[in-house]
Amino acid sequence: MEDQFPPLQNDLILRAARGQTVERPPIWVMRQAGRYLPEYHEAKGGRDFFECCRDPEVASTLTLQPIERFGTLLDASIIFSDILVIPQAMGMVVEMVDKKGPHFPNPLRTPDDGQYAKVMERSVDVAQELDYVYKAITLTRKKLQGRVPLFGFCGAPWTLLCYMVEGGGTKLFKEIKTWIYKYPEETKALLQKISEVCVEHLALQVKAGAQLVQVFDSWAGELSPASFKKFSQPYLEYIAKHLPLKLKELGLERVPMVVFAKGAWYALDAACDMGYDIVGLDWLHDPAQAVKTVGDRPIVLQGNADPGVLYGSHAAITEAVTEMVKGFGWASRKKGWIVNLGHGITPFVNPDDLKFFFQEIHRLTKTNA
Question: Which InterPro entries match (predicted)?
Answer without folding.
Answer: UROD/MetE-like_sf (IPR038071), Uroporphyrinogen_deCO2ase_HemE (IPR006361), Uroporphyrinogen_deCOase (IPR000257)
